[in-house]
């Protein structure tokens, strides 16, 4: 994870090279932009617009107002489908977060809104213990299913190692979280047939283990490192592969194209540097 201690250690070790004082880093953490990407997708018969929002981290540093702004921006893109890359939550889940659910229910896309789980979602359910989330909860799995039901009521379908046919030419699959779930990309893609395939998985470290080629994989988790320095890049990336999957376009097994989003929320510290939060819009065309 991107931890407060690791970021502070890196900043102090660099002689305070980052000018995060005066609220500069905080301000960067709450501004966001839209990145646009045009790609051909094998198997697609007609164009598709897909909006990807990931790592909302609603809770500790992110409130309903931030989520509302992201939803407004996503709706303005008039996407055919909205995909959420996990880490929706970053708070001990004592009750369903009404503000988050209220805002996600406003997302509009004719083909639907789909999400996967991330590691911070599992922490919020009580799957693992931390200073922020408290002790492990015996009922964490029941909390996960309860929240999935609440999301469904808000129009968001959670894909946990499963997929859906959205059009005759399009399959969308989603996997469980790599760190605290049991991700099964083969199950998520089962039934795709000759359709164009989109796979959402929270953690890009799953990319080398893809069981088959995928048209496009969308990931989050890394936040692009969240705090970056000129030339040096990210101070810390929560990946076993270091900077390899920090952000942007990367390649997985079977020469699969994948995009790792910088995400929208904040983890560890409420700051970013040279790493603007993003909503990614993919304008996909027949190959």
From the helix content, strand content and strand pairing, which structural class follows? alpha/beta
Overall spatial form? globular
In percent, how helical is the residue content?
10-25%
CATH superfamily membership = Metallo-dependent phosphatases
- With helices defined by DSSP (H or I, 4 residues minimum), what is the helix count? 7
Percent of residues in beta strands: 25-35%
If strands are numbered along the chain, what order do they take across the biggest sheet? 1-16-2-4-6-7
CATH fold description: Purple Acid Phosphatase, chain A, domain 2
Biggest sheet layout: 6 strands, mixed
Description:
This protein has 287 residues and is an alpha/beta fold. The chain has one domain: Purple Acid Phosphatase, chain A, domain 2 (4-Layer Sandwich). The protein has helices at 4-13, 24-30, 64-76, 98-104, 119-125, 140-153, 185-189, and strands at 33-41, 48-53, 58-59, 81-84, 89-90, 113-115, 156-158, 162-167, 170-174, 196-200, 216-219, 228-229, 233-234, 248-252, 256-260, 278-286. The protein has a six-stranded mixed beta sheet. Strand 12 and strand 13 form a beta hairpin. Helix 3 runs parallel beside helix 4 (98-104). It is globular. Residues 10-22 have low confidence and may be disordered. It comes from Deinococcus soli (ex Cha et al. 2016). Keywords: Hydrolase, Metal-binding.
Indicate the topology:
Layout: H1 4-13, H2 24-30, E1 33-41, E2 48-53, E3 58-59, H3 64-76, E4 81-84, E5 89-90, H4 98-104, E6 113-115, H5 119-125, H6 140-153, E7 156-158, E8 162-167, E9 170-174, H7 185-189, E10 196-200, E11 216-219, E12 228-229, E13 233-234, E14 248-252, E15 256-260, E16 278-286
Parallel strand pairs: 1-16, 2-4, 3-5, 4-6, 6-7, 9-10, 10-11, 11-15
Antiparallel strand pairs: 2-16, 8-9, 12-13, 14-15
């Amino acid at each position: 994870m991107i931890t407060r201690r690791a970021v502070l250690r890196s900043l102090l070790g660099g002689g305070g090279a980052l000018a995060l004082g005066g609220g500069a880093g905080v301000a960067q953490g709450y501004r966001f932009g839209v990145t646009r990407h045009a790609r051909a997708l094998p198997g697609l018969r007609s164009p598709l617009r897909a909006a990807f929002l990931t790592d909302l981290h609603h809770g500790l540093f992110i409130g309903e107002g931030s989520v509302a702004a992201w939803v407004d921006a996503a709706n303005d893109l008039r996407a055919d489908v909205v995909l959420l890359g996990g880490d929706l939550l970053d708070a001990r889940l004592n009750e369903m977060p009404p503000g988050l659910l209220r805002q996600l229910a406003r997302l509009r896309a004719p083909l639907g809104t789909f999400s996967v789980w991330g590691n911070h979602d599992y922490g919020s359910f009580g799957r693992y213990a931390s200073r922020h989330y408290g002790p492990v909860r015996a009922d964490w799995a029941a909390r996960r299913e309860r929240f999935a039901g609440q999301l469904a009521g808000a129009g968001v379908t959670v894909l946990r190692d499963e997929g859906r046919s959205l059009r005759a030419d399009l399959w969308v699959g989603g996997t469980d979280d790599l760190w605290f779930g049991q991700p099964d990309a083969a199950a998520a893609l089962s039934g795709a047939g000759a359709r164009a395939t989109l796979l959402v998985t929270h953690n890009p470290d799953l990319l080398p283990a893809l069981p088959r080629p995928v048209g496009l994989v969308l990931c989050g988790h890394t936040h692009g490192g969240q705090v970056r320095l000129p030339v040096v890049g990210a101070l810390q990336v929560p990946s076993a592969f270091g900077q390899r999957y920090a952000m942007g376009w990367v390649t997985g097994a079977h020469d699969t194209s994948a995009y790792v989003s910088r995400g929208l929320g904040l983890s560890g510290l409420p700051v970013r540097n040279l790493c603007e939060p993003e909503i990614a819009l993919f304008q996909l065309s027949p190959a």
